[in-house]
Amino acid sequence: MTLRALEVLRAVDAIAAEDTRVTRGLLTHFGISKKLMALHEHNEARAAAGIIDLIASGQAVAFVTDAGTPGVSDPGAALVDRVRAAGHAVIPIPGASALTAALSASGLSFDGVVFAGFLPARGKERRERLAALAAGPWAVVLFESPHRVVETFSDLHAAFGDRDVVIARELTKRFETITRRPLGGAAAWAEEDENRHRGEFVLVIEARAAHAEGAKDPTALLEILLAELPLKQAVALAAKISGGKRNDLYALALKMKPEK
User: What is the CATH topology of the domain spanning 98-205?
Assistant: First the structure.
């Protein structure tokens, strides 16, 4: 919690919160008493309208999420969009960031990072997302919940192969844990101690080696790109992402989506 955040919470007229119970505990700890209103994923549109009315009447409103940054894998994006569309200012109050904290403590070298948030829960969409991420040349950062993290380690190993993963658990909290493991052994490491798969996780997967070949099977990557782009453009982008030969990818794309 920064001094600036405390100043803002003391100065505003009202505070919207993802969970008013959690935020009330925070405010009580710092001796702050303010009107609280709930804004979460199930009521964001309706609550945003009420907040805009308060701002239009001259009031200042803060928005707090529980264990993350508003609008970054947390509610808030729709609120920000609607407040801006109504012509009002949106001012970020930076605080602890799990993404940058994990990267700074990872020890990994990278030219770029892809932040992918939470993966799809299961099925084809999950496999396709992993294939596309693995095909790129960048380090990848994911968020994951405790009840799915062991399964995710296995899926990451299948998609990314023998790369390392930095496992950052409960960042900035009491039980903070940061460790670097080969993906092939990450699931077993987590299952050795039930405490290792509790809490909120940030996973940083190292970038593909510069000399590595493209993904073994570029079909999933091409399938995603062909659904959104013309054939030639999809092939060109797939070649850049995967490092594969354009002619080979073009031939494969023709089989998947013949030109008319």
Answer: 3.30.950
